[in-house]
């Protein structure tokens, strides 16, 4: 894999912005989760970060893509997407699949993240229904982002540079596979516990 280990100013700025959003998301999540268990506090930290990414980063991407394209934009946020576009060229122009998925992600994914935050904090009965729905949406978005390009031989993906491949493509996209997967597992375990509890309670009254 070619490419030096130097990180340019554009890459550094983009990574710093992502780190700042992560810090804000974690701070909000941990504050909202005071008094809850560690798993729920961790989930809230992730969901706050997730919502911030959907609304603050992907929302502007959708807007800029619909009114023109990222390459020709002088907007400050466009510089982040131009940097990511070095790893996946489809983000630089109006790629119908990418923009369609991002519209779904911003509108549905962002809204579901906010609803799930509320459901966890207020301990609502619909928490795991929303959690499963959101996680499936996130995993579907990841699959449909890459599968069409893989089927064509990945012509738009730059895998020759360590930063673009391992950080931009593998790490940043892998996080949106790993954590939704863990949250799905959490929902599975909790629903199983509820089922056994309800079943055992029902047997007592027979």
Automatic annotation (TrEMBL):
Main subcellular location of this protein, as a coarse class: membrane
InterPro entries linked to this entry: EBP, EXPERA
The EXPERA domain, residue ranges: 39-184
Keyword Transmembrane in record: yes
Transmembrane segments: 12-32, 44-66, 98-121, 128-146, 166-185
UniProt-listed PROSITE patterns: EXPERA, PROKAR_LIPOPROTEIN
This protein's record includes keyword Kinase: no
Keywords: Membrane, Transmembrane, Transmembrane helix
Cellular component terms (Gene Ontology): endoplasmic reticulum; membrane
Location within or outside the cell: Membrane
UniProt topology in membrane: Multi-pass membrane protein
Gene Ontology molecular-function annotations: cholestenol delta-isomerase activity
Similarity comment: Belongs to the EBP family.
Protein name: Emopamil-binding protein-like
